[in-house]
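Work Package 3 (structural annotation) set out to generate three-dimensional models for the target panel prioritized at the project kickoff. During this period the team completed the workflow that converts sequence records into discrete structure tokens, so that structures can be stored uniformly alongside our sequence database. As a representative example, we reproduce one entry of 78 residues exactly as it appears in the project archive.
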Amino acid sequence: MIYLTDRITIDENICNGKPTIRGLRITAQSIIEYLSVGDSVDEILANFPDLKPEDITACLQFAGKLLKNKFVIKDLVA
């Protein structure tokens, strides 16, 4: 298991290698998606009792760090 942060981990055997929260089968992507449709932190915590408020914050921080990267779009010729 690789720790990207103290709470975000990657293990190729868990959730197909997607970043998860503390090795649980809850992806950072899922939490970001719940937040994006308007679910509150309290609602997410009620639905995922293994999570802590700090886990939600870690997902947002992780997403923010990813977006700091430079992205280049290349045209592919078929």
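The two ends are 37 Å apart (CA to CA).
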